[in-house]
Write a structure and sequence with these properties.
This protein is an alpha+beta fold and about 100 residues long. It is built from 4 helices and 2 strands, in the order E-E-H-H-H-H.
Length: about 100
């Protein structure tokens, strides 16, 4: 059984601490392609996860993500920050390299 969505889906989140991330854009097909294009042009990290996009795509624009997805989204946000060279206070890239 194929559980993958047949059409490309994209969901954009905005995170302004301390509030939970919110859905700022969502769409399938051509709209998804446009969301991805705009993200890439703006230098926004794009994470591909069809199942997560499908779950988030069910939410209304402006909605905070549900608590059940906090951990998954937090890991993605933390990884995106690290890619930009941003680390928690008192931590450096070397701290994380030594943990692996």
């Amino acid at each position: 059984m194929n559980t993958e969505p047949s059409e490309k889906r994209a969901v954009a989140l905005q995170y302004d601490a301390p509030a939970a991330p919110r859905i700022t854009a969502s769409g399938e097909g051509d709209i998804a392609e446009e969301i991805l294009r705009l993200a890439q042009e703006a230098g926004v990290h794009v994470h591909e996860d069809a199942q997560l996009a499908q779950l988030l795509g069910r939410l209304e624009l402006g909605t905070e993500i549900p608590r059940e997805l906090y951990l998954a989204i937090a890991e993605i946000i933390a990884f995106a920050y690290m890619l930009k060279g941003k680390f928690p206070v008192g931590k450096t890239a070397q701290d994380y390299a030594s943990e692996s």
